[in-house]
Amino acid sequence: MIDRVVNYEEGKTLTAIKNVSINEPQFTGHFPNMPVFPGVLILEAMAQATGLLAFKTFGAPKENELYYFASIDNAKFRKPVMPGDQLVLEVEFLKERRGIAMFNGVAKVDGDVVCSAELKCARREFS
């Protein structure tokens, strides 16, 4: 879903781009005569950017380790995203505690915040 990473500050932040195209399948029915990029897909793009930052920060998981998306909290949608918009996804690493990493995420279009959320990723070893 993410088109490219445009900025990365080691262990701190990552900025990625998602170009929203009318050719994407969700616009078939969301919504007829008024295409709007679904909020859940904005969160998915933000989660992907978070995953990239987490992977770059903590490295590849070990063979017996799983790194997974754990939660989204306080998601807020401020403006609709339309075909032709470019989503700029900015995620920031906050801290890690007991294998759970916490991040802040913001999605912007033309400099305006369209969505914000708190995201968590977890790392667990399995035997």
CATH fold label: Thiol Ester Dehydrase, Chain A
Strand order of the largest sheet: 1-2-4-5-6-3
The total strand number stands at 6
Termini separation: 32 Å
Secondary-structure element pattern, one letter each: EEHEEEE
- Give a quick account of the main beta sheet: strands, pairing sense, barrel closure: 6 strands, antiparallel
| CATH homologous group name | Hotdog Thioesterase
Count of individual helical segments:
1
CATH C-level class is Alpha Beta
Strand % is over 45%
Number of domains: 1
**What overall geometry do the principal axes of the alpha carbons give?**
elongated
Low-confidence stretches: none
* Secondary-structure arrangement, i.e. CATH architecture: Roll
Structural class: alpha+beta
Tell me what you see in this structure:
The protein is of the alpha+beta class and 127 residues long. It has one domain: Hotdog Thioesterase (Thiol Ester Dehydrase, Chain A). It is built from 1 helix and 6 strands, in the order ββαββββ. The chain has one helix at 39-58, and strands at 4-9, 13-19, 65-77, 86-97, 100-109, 112-125. It has a 6-stranded antiparallel β-sheet, with helices on one face. Strand 5 and strand 6 form a beta hairpin. It is elongated.
